[in-house]
Design goal:
The chain is an alpha/beta fold. It contains eleven helices and nine strands. The strands form two sheets. The protein has a seven-stranded parallel β-sheet. Strands 8-9 form a two-stranded antiparallel ribbon. The longest helix has 20 residues, at about 255-270. The termini are far apart.
Length: about 280
């Protein structure tokens, strides 16, 4: 019972320190499809608070629902406001996404720095949000003036304009990336578990040094028999190069067994030809 109580306390502490995700506020979005694509990007990266300010084609919008695909639930629960002031009224800290500071004196943050800032504020129980402008013109000066800081991505200066869904996806990626030092990659399933960087070893494991040394001994013995490691003065460097090839490949235990089977099969075939090399 005591262990369960301690476990419950740890879980409550973990929940308490999880930062609240920022709201994504689309200001006067023009196309329903872009709203849906933005919702899908939000769902990819764990953002769930979608707010719309005066969508041009009204709301609800069937095209947004279709474009969202599996994230249609975000479209269904999106909140609609008539003004930016109403949409951000209860937030404590707001960022404005724009490629142009427009001569306003504002702190400028990269998407990575912005995500870090919002996480820190979320841990302090502050409510935060990010403003994204309409597709044609982006956020105007009056809207940017309502924000605490600007978020701007490093892009090609000759073509700096991002589409609305792209901008949301870029920010969402940085938000989720900040969740841990090494966040899981790709889809997590009950069969595979989370994907991580590096070589995956499904159904096997990395080879041990002893298994590699056994392969080297086997291979080098057969190469000596075949006369490959010749002349004698070059044998040490040839052996080092061959071993280095196997070290670079990051072999699995299954790889080692496969290679040893290949060597044994080739040796048997050579013996069947009376040791002659074709």
């Amino acid at each position: 019972m005591k262990a369960k109580a301690e476990s419950g306390k740890r879980e409550q502490a973990s929940v308490a320190t999880q930062p609240a995700a920022p709201a994504v506020i689309l200001v006067r979005p023009q196309l329903g499809e872009n709203i849906g694509f933005a919702a899908r990007a939000m769902a990819n990266f764990g953002l769930t608070d979608l707010r719309l300010v005066a969508p041009r084609d009204g709301w609800p919008n069937d095209k947004a629902h279709v474009a969202a695909a599996g994230a249609a639930f975000l479209v269904d629960q999106a909140r609609v406001y008539q003004s930016v002031e109403l949409a951000i009224g209860e937030l404590n800290f707001v960022l404005a996404a724009t490629a142009r500071p427009r001569e306003l004196v504002k702190t400028v943050l990269s998407p990575e720095s912005a995500a870090r800032e919002l996480r820190e504020r979320g841990v302090r129980a502050e409510r935060t949000g990010v403003l994204f402008g309409p597709e044609r013109s982006g956020l105007d000066n009056d809207t940017i003036a309502l924000a605490d800081a600007i978020i701007t991505a490093p892009v090609n200066p000759d073509f700096a304009s991002l589409s609305l869904p792209q901008a949301v996806l870029l920010f969402g990626y940085e938000w989720l990336k900040g969740e841990s030092a090494s966040p899981p990659l790709g889809r997590v399933t009950g069969f595979d578990g989370p994907v991580t960087e590096g070589i995956a070893f499904p159904g096997t494991r990395p080879a041990t040094r002893a298994e590699l040394f056994g392969l080297f001994e086997h291979l080098e013995a057969k190469l000596d028999q075949a006369g490959f490691l010749y002349p004698a003065q070059k044998r040490p460097s040839m052996v080092r190069n061959i071993r280095n090839m196997f070290h670079r490949m990051g072999a699995s235990e299954q790889d080692i067994r496969t290679w040893r089977g290949i060597i044994a099969s080739l040796a048997r075939a050579r013996q069947g030809r009376g040791g002659k090399v074709s």
